[in-house]
């Protein structure tokens, strides 16, 4: 170990990290040296003092009020006209290549019981397409529909980056030209023991974890992705997470409203199903848009209702955004991004002082993350558009139950059934009103309702039979 690094570790009380250096080879030395050099030790010491050795109090902003939003369905003629103009403008931006898709895909499928990047998890009901393939086909169709191929930026994690890239190569990028797919890697943070000491995963490696989806913005800057966007004229990013296959990869109405409102960062909202649904709450405080985590929202505010019985704080966040590239550059100027950190107690496998492997049965560490929604208060102008849950949100987080692979497949089928019915196709139903068949529409042909109606009118679509599994392409 070089002397300067040894002095740094001693200065910050982390000298235990070089205990195993004498027994390492040169390759192992270089691995941990690289990890240690990447750490901003002054900042980390402050974070340890603030978030590890002490537990910061969650302070709710004063005088919060519900955030205003545009409804999914316009309420009057004035709004109808605004939506018409927004749809036209969003379509123009797509035709001019001003919009790119941005997918956060740094996670593994651990909670699903799946060993691999979550984006490689098979999800569609008939063809078993993976999440990545399903998004890729939507992106291809979007490009064809608007006459301009869509660039796709994918944020991986250090643990799944090589696997993800290889998956795309093996699948020939699912038909997208490789020059339009851009991978960049999320930053990491060391896992920190309850005593403020960094944990070692092995003798040659720190225990590192992703720095949260807030790290997306800085990773875009540091990876050179923002420079790539500038080079090809991209001005707006359609942001979504890899575990939500229902989402529109680039919704022209959402993009157009973002443009018309001169918003720097815009969000979709869902009407919460109950006061304590696990969605962040959109709120206004001090004239700025904030999201208050569901776990931090005071009970009396969460349960507050309007005169008609609707929740007062009804707007929940499904993590769907449009972000201006100018805003990303503004936030990351100088190569840093100062978003608030969030503390989470976790069970982190590590080695002990003698180098023995430990698998903890209770939380032994603090992980620190930043969240992308914490960028909202920094935006000069924001905008929220309501999304219909059944059309835009069904996350794949668990193997069964709520927000699971099972519930997502059901919602994928239901969405495609509604599209077929809008095109005049008769779909058999069970006594309880649910589809008595399994259908899957290929996004390469059917991006939206308009595509299904047009295809049915032009070429015709056969009615599915009772109990049948049908793939329409």
Key traits:
alpha+beta; three-stranded antiparallel sheet; 14 helices; 22 strands
Describe how the helices and strands are arranged.
Layout lengths: L2 H9 L14 H12 L3 H12 L12 E2 L10 H19 L3 E6 L26 H16 L4 E6 L4 H10 L10 E5 L2 E3 L1 E2 L6 E3 L2 E2 L1 E3 L4 H8 L2 H8 L3 E6 L10 H9 L4 E7 L8 E6 L2 E5 L6 H4 L12 E3 L3 E4 H7 L10 E5 L3 E2 L5 E2 L6 E5 L12 E5 L2 H4 L12 H18 L15 E4 L7 H10 L10 E4 L1
Parallel strand pairs: 2-3, 2-10, 3-4, 11-20, 21-22
Antiparallel strand pairs: 1-12, 5-9, 6-19, 7-8, 10-15, 11-14, 11-15, 12-13, 12-14, 16-19, 17-18
Helix pairs in contact: 4-9
Briefly summarize what is shown.
It contains 14 helices and 22 strands. It has 473 residues and is an alpha+beta fold.
Describe this structure in words.
Helix 4 packs across helix 9 (252-260). It is built from 14 helices and 22 strands. It has helices spanning 3-11, 26-37, 41-52, 77-95, 131-146, 161-170, 215-222, 225-232, 252-260, 299-302, 325-331, 389-392, 405-422, 449-458; strands at residues 65-66, 99-104, 151-156, 181-185, 188-190, 192-193, 200-202, 205-206, 208-210, 236-241, 265-271, 280-285, 288-292, 315-317, 321-324, 342-346, 350-351, 357-358, 365-369, 382-386, 438-441, 469-472. Helix 5 (131-146) links the parallel strand 2 and strand 3 (151-156). The mean pLDDT is 95. Strands 1, 2, 3, 4, 10, 11, 12, 13, 14, 15 and 20 form an 11-stranded mixed beta sheet that branches. Strands 6-19-16 form a 3-stranded antiparallel beta sheet, covered by helices on one side.
Quaternary structure classification: single chain
The proportion of residues forming helix, as a percent range, comes to 25-40%
Uncertain runs are: none
The fraction of residues assigned to DSSP E strands is: 15-25%
- Tally of separate helices: 14
Q: Say which CATH homologous superfamily of the largest domain is assigned.
A: Spore Coat Polysaccharide Biosynthesis Protein SpsA, Chain A
CATH topology name of the largest domain, in short, is: Spore Coat Polysaccharide Biosynthesis Protein SpsA, Chain A
CATH class of the largest domain: Alpha Beta
CATH architecture field of the largest domain:
Alpha-Beta Complex
> Total domains, how many?
2
Structural class comes to alpha+beta
**Mind describing the biggest β-sheet?**
11 strands, mixed
Radius of gyration: 24 Å
